[in-house]
Here is the input.
Amino acid sequence: KNQVEQSPQSLIILEGKNCTLQCNYTVSPFSNLRWYKQDTGRGPVSLTIMTFSENTKSNGRYTATLDADTKQSSLHITASQLSDSASYICVVSASEGWNTGFQKLVFGTGTRLLVSP
Amino acid sequence: GAGVSQSPRYKVAKRGQDVALRCDPISGHVSLFWYQQALGQGPEFLTYFQNEAQLDKSGLPSDRFFAERPEGSVSTLKIQRTQQEDSAVYLCASSLETRFNSPLHFGNGTRLTVT
Here is the structure.
């Protein structure tokens, strides 16, 4: 069964500190891996998208890594800010529906990050 | 509009009532998805449209759930005879293209509570 597991479930860090969130997946056939940020009561917002051939991608203070061999990804947040408090969701796309380009996304349950002043 | 718009923002329904949830995708976006997100969980796929064609509805939990996108823009998710287990946030997402790494833009969801 296609699954995406994230750790830790929740995390509290002090403002200004760095943190790393983990994602393991068993989705096949793999197409791409995405990290989303979801604020409470809002829809997810895309941070990064990585295909099989990419092993790192940055978006400001967010850096995602991908190891397609071990099926692991991480999201590193540098110099955290209060506004980083949110759930971070790892999403893996299975390349089903090839003819239609349909992206079958498998979502993790997220890591809930709280940045404390 | 600038983003994906969903309405209503909140909906409370008595068990057995029918509800209709609306999604206005970003103008010109070809692909439209509906997801169901239970509290503390990640979104789960319900159905997918490419323009007006519903290409996949394998995630709809029962025949009480029905979705349409008749003109290839606005979409409606209808739930008949609502049950308590239908309580969740229903998210709509759209993307400009159908290629695999096309970014998805999510709405803020409709929170449905069935009492």
About this structure: Chain B touches chain A at residues 4, 31, 33, 35, 40-45, 48, 50, 55-56, 91, 93, 95, 97-109 (CB under 8 Å). The mean pLDDT of chain B is 93.
